[in-house]
Hints:
By secondary structure, the chain is mostly beta strands. The chain is 0% helix and 26% strand. The protein starts with 24 loop residues before the first strand and ends in a 10-residue tail after the last strand. Zinc ion (ZN) binds at residues 7, 9-10, 12, 28, 30-31, 33.
Amino acid sequence: MTALPTCPTCDAVVPVPADVVANELISCPDCGSDLEVVSLNPLTLDLAPDVEEDWGE
Ligand SMILES: [Zn+2]
């Protein structure tokens, strides 16, 4: 694996584990954004949905 994905927020290259799987959540080391692996081939990251808020109440 040679092409590393870039952060959609800050465009930094985000290192991913060799055994990364689809839908895995990764934090951008540069801006701290929560990113989700939306595709493995090619490796693509997108902003993870905010699952912690807007649920119930
Ligand atoms: Zn970033």
